[in-house]
Amino acid sequence: MASRNQDLPPIPGKLTVRESGERTVFPFGIDKIVLDGKNADSLDFVILHPPSGARTRGKTAGTVCKVLQAERFEGNLSVVLQGVCRTRFELPLKGNAAKVRHQPFADRPVKSSSPLAAAKMRGVLEKLNDLAASAMTVSPGFVESVARINSPGRFTDIVAQELLLPGEKAAILIAEADPLKRLDFILEFLRKEMEIESIRLEMENKTFKEIDKRQREYLLKQQLETIQSELSQGKEQEGWEASYLKKAGSMDAPESVREHLTKEIGRLARLSPYSDEAAQLRPYLDLVFDLPWGIATKDNLDLVKVRRLLDREHYGLAKVKKRILEHLAVSKIGGKGGGRIFCLVGPPGVGKTSLGKAIAGALGRKFVQMSLGGIKDEAEIRGHRKTYIGAMPGRIINGLRMAGSMNPVFLLDEIDKIGMDFRGDPSSALLEALDPVQNVHFVDNYLGFPFDLSKVLFITTANTTDGIHPAFLDRLEILELPSYTEEEKLSIAKRHLVKRIKESTGVGGRISIDDGAITAVIRSFTREAGLRNLERELEKIYRNAALKVAEGKTFPERIDEKEARKILGPAPFFFNERMKKEKVGVATGLAYTEVGGEVLFVEASVLDGAGSLTLTGQLGEVMKESAQAALTFIRSRASELRVNAKSLSKKDVHIHFPEGAIPKDGPSAGITIAVALYSAISGKRADRDTAFTGEITLRGDVLPVGGVREKILAAHRSQIKKVVLPSFNRKDTVELPRSVLSSVKMIFVDNIREVFRHAFKDESLGNK
Questions:
Q1: In Å, how far are 49, 79, 84, 194 from 158, measured between CA atoms?
Q2: C-alpha to C-alpha distance for 216 and 439, rounded to whole angstroms
Q3: Over the stretch 295-347, which tens digit does the pLDDT of each residue have?
Q4: Which of 91, 557, 644, 675 is deepest in the core (most CB within 10 A)?
Q5: Residue 437 and residue 336: Cα distance in Å, rounded?
C-alpha cells in the first residue's frame, strides 16, 4: 500500500537533487503495487506522478521517492516512501509501472530575504490563520510550525500537503519550479476557500440570530401549513368551521349560548390549527356540542309498575319507596315536584347505592354515579377554567355528557366524607349545583355559561348526617334506611343473595341452603346493620360446595345449620356470653355509630381513696361529662338512694368502657354510666336482660337521644329482652318492625330513679 503522503511528498532539506537515471514509475491513487516476479529489496527509488499527466517542457512531472520500507503480504507489496525531488520523464505507453529515464529539476533560486517572497509567505500564513479559526481543515499547531520555515519552496510544498489539494491542482504545483508562482497559486486557492467559508459562516450566523426556539417552532408550523395547503387540507379546516356552525345553529340551547359558541367558532377559524389556543378551543367546542341539549328521557309514570319494580329490587324500605311514588304522583298530575335532593342515610351495606340504581331503573331514567369520598378540590365540582393547561369540566357536567340526558338520576355517593383544604370547599360548590333555586343557572368554570340542572334528580347517600355541611344539610330531604332485622336479612338472603351467589359460584340449582343455616350465619357469624358480611359468609359456603363438586367429591344437596357451622368454623361473636351472668358494677348500654347500632358495656369500680374519678376506654369529652354528671347526681341524692355520702366522698371511682381501641363519645351513655356506678356503690346487680340509653342531667332527668331505631335493632340482634329509653323517644319506636316490638320490651322513663327501679327491680328506688 503506497503511503498516503504520496500526493505531494515533502522534499527533505538534507537531500539534494539526484542525477538522472532509471526509475520505476507509479501514478497517484494506486492502492496496490504488484511487481511481477521482482523482489521488494530491488526497489530503491520510484517516481510518483498524477494520473492527469501534468507536464513541464513537454514531459510528465513527477516526484522521486525513496523506498524506506517494502513488505509483501498475500501477493501484494506494501511500501513506505519518502519524497526526494521533482523530476521530468516520458510516460510509458502501457502499464501502470515501468522503468523510465528521468531528469530531476530543482526549484528556481529565491532568496529567503526577498521582500516579495516574505510578503507572499506572510499572506499565506494570514489566510491559514483565518482558515484555522473558522474551520477544522487546518490546525493552529500546523500554522505555528510552518511559520518557522524560511525556504519559500519548502514552505509551499508543506502547506500544499496540509491543504489536501485535489489531484489536478497538486499536479500543477509538482510541475511548477518557481516557488513564487507556487505561492501565488496557494494564495488564490486559500482566497477561494475563505470566500466559501465566509459565506457558510454568514449563513450560519444569520440563521442562529433570526431563529430562536419559538421562531423555529413558528417556521415549522408555517412549513406544515404549506404542506397542508398543498395537500388540500385547508378545505377540511373550512369543513370543521361549517360543521361547528351547523351544530350551533341546530342545537336546542338558549340563544345566549348559541351566540357565545358562534363567537368561539369564529375565533377558532382565525387561529392557526396548530396554535395552543386552537388546541384548547377544539376540545371545548366538542364537549359543549356533546352535552345533551334538549334531550330527556320520558319518565315512567305508571305508579303500579314502579312500585312493583322497586319491590322486586329491594325488600322492605317502605318509607323510601313511598316518597319516590309521591314524587312521581306529583309529576303525573302536573305538579312541579322536580329539583328535590334526596339523601339516603343509613349504615354501610343497607343498599343505599343499589336503591339509587333501582330508582333510576323504575323511573326509566339514565343513571350516573359520582363518589364524593375524599374529594377536597372544588374544581372537581365546578371544573377548571378552559385557559388552563389540562383543563376539564366538573364531574357533574361530565356525568351529564356521559348520560346523554338532561334528566338522569344522579347519585352522589358518600356525601358525608367530603374533605376541605386550600383548594376550596367542595360542599359549598355543591350548593349551587344541587339547590333547586340556584341550579337552573349553574355555571361550570370550564363552560363559562349557565347550564340548567333543574331536571336532574339528585340522590345523595351518607352513613350519618354529622359530617355534612350545615348549609348543605338544610337543602337535603333526609330518607333514613335503617338496619335490617333478622327476619328481613333472612328474606333478603333467600330472595336476592343466594340467587346471586349461586350464579357467581357456578353451583346453580345443584345445592340449596335451608333457613336454619342462614339464620345461624346471621346470628353467630355476622353482627352488622347491613348485608355485606352475610353475603361474604354465604359465599364461603357455596365456594366450599363448588370445590367439592369440581373435585368430584360427594356433598349434601341441602346445607343445614350443622353443615354451615362446620364449613365456617368457630363463631366469631361471643359477647352474648358476657350477659349470661349479672355482675356488680356492670351495665349494658346502647350506642349509635355510622355503621349502625352497637351494644356496649360500662364497668365501674369503687375503692378507697380521695374521692377522685378515673375514666378509661378512649372516651370523648361529652361522654366524660356524662360520667361526671352521673357521679354528681348519685352523691347529691345519696340519702334518697340509700347510699352513705360520707363514705362515698372517701372513695375513688373508676369507670371503664371495654374495647378501648374504639373511640366513644356522645351523651346517650349517661344513664348507663349511672346504673353501673350505682351498682358498684350499692353492691346490687343490674338486670342482665336490660339495656339502657339516654342522657342524664344533674337533677336526674332523662333527656332524649338520637339513633333510637338503630340501637333497638342492635339490642334485638343481641337478644336483649328490655330496653330503657327516654319517654321523649317514644315516637321513634312507632315504625319499628313487629318482630322487634314483639321480642323487645320498651320501657320509657323520665328520671333516673325510674331507671334504677327497672335496672335493679327495686320499686322503692322509684319513689321521690
A1: 18, 22, 13, 19
A2: 48
A3: 888 888 888 888 888 888 888 788 888 888 888 888 788 766 555 788 998 88
A4: 675
A5: 13
Residues paired with residue 55 on neighbouring β-strands, in sequence order: 60
- CB under 8 Å to 232, separation ≥6 — which residues? none
Measured in degrees and rounded to the nearest 5, phi and psi for residue 202 equal -65, -45
β-bridge partners, 605: 654
Q: What is the largest CA-CA distance in the chain?
A: 154
Q: How many residues would you count in the chain?
A: 768
Crossing angle between the packed helical segments 152-163 and 115-134, to the nearest 10 degrees? 20
Q: Which residue has the cell 364449613?
A: 567
Q: Which residues pair with 725 in a beta bridge?
A: 748
Cell reading at 744: 323487645
CB 68 within 8 A of CB 9: no
> pLDDT digits over 623-637, tens only?
889 889 988 888 888
**Strand partners of residue 426:** none
Contacts of 242 (CB under 8 A, 6+ apart): none
Backbone angles phi, psi at 88, to 5 degrees: -120, 145
H and E: helices and strands count for the chain: 27, 24
For 708, how many CA atoms within 13 A lie in the half-sphere containing its CB?
23
Task: Find the radius of gyration of the CA atoms of the chain.
Answer: 52
Active site residue 711: yes
Tell me which of 405, 427, 626, 668 is the catalytic residue. Answer: 668
Task: Write the CB contacts of 175 (distance below 8 Å, at least 6 apart in sequence).
Answer: 54, 55, 56, 61, 86
**pLDDT on residue 328:** 82
- Residue 437's alpha-carbon distances to 431, 499, 696, in angstroms, are 10, 44, 42
Choose, from 366, 502, 684, 711, the residue flagged as catalytic. 711
One DSSP character per residue, 338-392 reads: TT-EEEEE--TTSSHHHHHHHHHHHHT--EEEEE-TT---THHHH---TTSTT--
